[in-house]
Amino acid sequence: MKTCLQLWMLCLTVLASAIISPEFARGSVVAPSAFDNSIIASNFDDVGEKAVSPPSEAIDYRESLRILIAAPENLNPANFLPPPVEQNESLIGASEDGRSDELSDEQEKLPISDVEDQLVTESSTIDWEDLTIDISDSATNFGQGNRIITPVLRGKLANGNIISIEPGFNRFSLSDLETVYHVPLTVGWEGAINDVNLAAAGGIDIFNRLPLDTHFDGKVSFPVSNDATLSLNLTQGPYLFNAQTLENGISSWRYGPDLFWQIDSKTSLFSLLRIGNFSDGNLEQQSFSRLERQLREDLSISLNVFNWSFAQDLESQSGYFSPPDFLVATGEVAWEAHIADYLSCRLAGSAGQQRLNGSWVLGYGHQAVCDIEILPSVQMDFGYNYSNVSNGQSVDPGDSAYNNWQVVGGLRSTF
After folding, report:
1. Which residues have CB under 8 Å from 112's CB, separation 6+?
2. 277 torsion bin: left (phi>0), alpha (psi -120 to 50), beta (else)
3. How far apart are CA 217 and CA 62, in angstroms?
4. In a domain, 114, yes or no
5. How far is CA 245 from CA 32, 79, 210, 285, in A?
6. Which residue segment(s) compose the domain that 317 sits in?
7. Does residue 247 sit within a domain?
8. Full-prediction pTM beyond 0.85?
9. Residues 6+ apart with CB under 8 A from 44
10. Residue 12 belongs to a domain
11. What is the pLDDT of residues 208-249, one digit of tens each?
């Protein structure tokens, strides 16, 4: 753990010195930017979201935690950006529409029992606001396929807190194994106390041929300065890596911080650290850092460093990628623009190096995603990702035989 902490801090220092302009040394201030790691990791889980956007535009992070934080084909730290700091007025004695918690004149004239019934009815009403359906279908040249379908219905309570219902429909296939179908049923809650955001979600995992399981996610986010937000994360549940991992009953606890730092008006830094404990006795350490620079409104560059290590390599026994030493370092160029009033697209490519157990090979990928506004309240996303970043199935000296293709899409509707 000490080694991972030292490496995490070193990555932050190296990345900061690599891109930050001279203005930073004089104390410039920054605007936030979300991170999309699909180019290193061949996954853009939420194609409708801008890869360069403030935390307020970041997608819902809880579903990303449910899938898999660390695996290269699933890591997307944009999902871990802290939610925006919003004042929860109900916690300081007023509801969202400014009404006082005190009884109205009409309520004072009613019998006490009628007033109580009326207050209970108002406080229990949910104003459903939006429905999002995300679809991700990935496949590798080693016979692994994961299809993730996640509908999320979100609504606001009378006190301003957010409630979400998430029934998932997932499929995990692997050569020589019977397909595993997975239906997670999740209920989530989000609230705030002053400038501290709180979120919790939990539920059950139903499988077609495996025992029932449970999962839980928790997150606390708070500003540490005017330009930086720190988040503390805790997740527990089945390890949704592939069919073999699920068949072996592998589950995990993961915990650690996220840091989002606005360095100046065009430069941002996102970094995370995770420690994992697995049901088979394995221990995991991972860190990721991304430093991004906006060159102009539609063009950005970034540096990405991802490190992942396990105490034991149990891939043959448990079925999941568990490298003692895995490092990915890439540079990325991305273009994103509104092509028409109803259409915006993002094109990106990356190249760098990946190291697995001491062997260095080229790591690269590309991505194309678009967002279409069908109606003012309905948007549709679709995209394609490719990456040769390994997930442990193959790395040959001088080249990487691993290929991952992913088609993603989504539908968002506001009420």
Report:
1. none
2. beta
3. 7
4. no
5. 36, 23, 12, 19
6. 2-88+125-414
7. yes
8. no
9. 36, 38, 51, 76, 367, 369, 383, 385, 406, 408
10. yes
11. 999 999 999 999 999 999 999 999 999 999 999 999 999 999
